[in-house]
C-alpha cells in the first residue's frame, strides 16, 4: 500500500496483476482439505510467523534462504497450495510482466516475496525470456 500511495502521489500509473476475484478464484480451486489447512494456519497465526521469518532474508537479498524458508517448505508440505497460490499465479503474472516490459522506459513491478524465490519463481520464469532484474533494496 505504501508503494501504491507513493506512485499515485507521483502521478505514476498503477495497475494490479490480478483482481480480487482472481485471487479468490485461486483459493476456491483448492481442495476442501487444503483450504481448511490454509485457513487453520491463518487463524493460528502460523502464516504471520512465516511472513515474519521472510523479512530478514529479504532485506539481506538472500533469495536462497528466502526460498528455503517459505516456498520450498510450502512445496514440500502443501504442494497443492504451492501450485495454486505460487506457481500458477506467478506464471500468469510473468506473462503480464513480459508484455509490460516490451514498452519503453523502466518499470517497477512489485509482487510478494514468495513469488521471487524457491522453485518455479518469477525471476527464473522471466530470466528464461531474457528479462533482467535489479533488486531494489529497502532503505
What is the strand and helix layout of this fold?
Blueprint lengths: L1 H8 L10 H9 L3 H13 L1 H15 L2 H15 L1 H22 L21 H6 L12
Q: Could you characterize the architecture of this molecule?
A:
This protein has 139 residues and is mostly helical. It has one domain. Helix content is 63%, strand content 0%. Helix 4 packs antiparallel against helix 5 and helix 5 packs across helix 6. The longest helix is centred in the middle third of the chain and has 22 residues. The mean pLDDT is 88.
Percent in strands = under 5%
How large, in whole angstroms, is the Cα Rg?
16 Å
Number of domains: 1
Give the averaged pLDDT, no decimals: 88
Task: Note the quaternary state here.
Answer: single chain
The main sheet comes to: none
Tally of alpha and pi helices: 7
Keywords:
139 residues; mainly alpha; globular
Short description:
With 139 residues, the chain is mainly alpha-helical. It has one domain (20-127).
Amino acid at each position: 500500500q505504501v508503494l501504491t500511495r507513493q506512485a499515485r502521489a507521483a502521478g505514476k500509473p498503477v495497475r494490479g496483476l490480478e483482481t480480487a476475484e482472481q485471487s479468490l478464484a485461486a483459493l476456491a480451486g483448492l481442495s476442501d482439505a487444503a483450504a481448511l489447512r490454509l485457513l487453520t494456519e491463518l487463524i493460528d497465526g502460523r502464516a504471520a510467523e512465516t511472513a515474519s521469518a521472510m523479512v530478514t532474508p529479504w532485506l539481506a537479498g538472500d533469495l536462497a534462504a528466502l526460498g528455503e524458508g517459505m516456498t520450498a517448505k510450502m512445496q514440500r508440505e502443501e504442494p497443492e497450495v504451492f501450485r495454486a497460490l505460487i506457481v500458477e499465479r506467478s506464471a500468469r503474472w510473468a506473462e503480464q510482466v513480459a508484455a509490460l516490459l516490451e514498452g519503453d522506459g523502466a518499470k517497477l513491478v512489485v509482487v510478494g516475496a514468495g513469488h521471487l524465490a524457491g522453485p518455479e519463481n518469477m525471476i527464473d520464469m522471466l530470466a528464461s525470456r531474457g528479462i533482467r532484474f535489479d533488486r531494489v533494496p529497502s532503505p
